[in-house]
Design brief:
- The chain has about 160 residues and is an alpha+beta fold.
- The chain has one domain: Haem-degrading domain (Beta-Lactamase).
- Helices cover about 50% and strands about 20% of the residues.
- The protein has a four-stranded antiparallel sheet with strand order 2-1-4-3.
- Helix 1 (about 5-15) runs antiparallel to helix 4 and helix 2 crosses helix 6.
- The two termini are about 20 Å apart.
Length: about 160
């Protein structure tokens, strides 16, 4: 497995929540919004728990197209329980794309960075954290950087 794929799997394993709630979704969404604004990024942000959107925000300059990317990235995280940046690179390593490799419809799924599994430790993937509007690697980076600072040390220390 490539170093990048290993790094992405490590992020998914480490950046998990000990617990999650509606309030935490709001706080995380605000943290993502604040970080995006600090970068001058025009993005759409979505946090979904068990199929229920708990936070959605579109910064000035983002377009309706970004909401369509959010929908498709969320579908991919929900189906595969991996970040969309991991999926993009895993299929690339196999020499195919997600649509050829799994038969999913590109109208409903996207394997471009910016979708990340919302995972509760000991429970599993319970939703998704999605950003769209930056280059795909930067959409992923924004989520990871915010999770790095958002999760408390006790949560990150629980990683096996």
């Amino acid at each position: 497995m490539s170093e990048l794929l290993e790094k992405l799997l490590e992020q998914e394993s480490r950046l998990q929540f000990a617990w999650f709630s509606h309030q935490r979704a709001w706080d995380l969404g605000v943290a993502l919004k604040t970080a995006a604004e600090a970068e001058g990024a025009s993005v759409a942000i979505d946090i979904t728990l068990n199929g229920l959107t708990l936070f959605a925000f579109v910064l000035p300059g983002a377009r309706g197209d970004n909401l369509e990317w959010v929908r498709r990235k969320k579908n991919s995280v929900t189906r595969y329980h991996h970040s969309t940046w991991y999926l993009a690179n895993a299929y690339k390593a196999k020499g195919k794309n997600m649509y050829e490799g799994s038969g999913v419809d590109p109208k409903d799924y996207a394997c471009h960075g910016g979708g990340f599994p919302l995972t509760v430790r000991g429970v599993g993937v319970v939703g998704s954290i999605t950003v769209s509007g930056l280059p795909q690697e930067d959409d992923h980076r924004l989520i990871v950087e915010v999770l790095e600072s958002f999760l408390d040390e006790g949560e990150k220390a629980c990683a096996d």
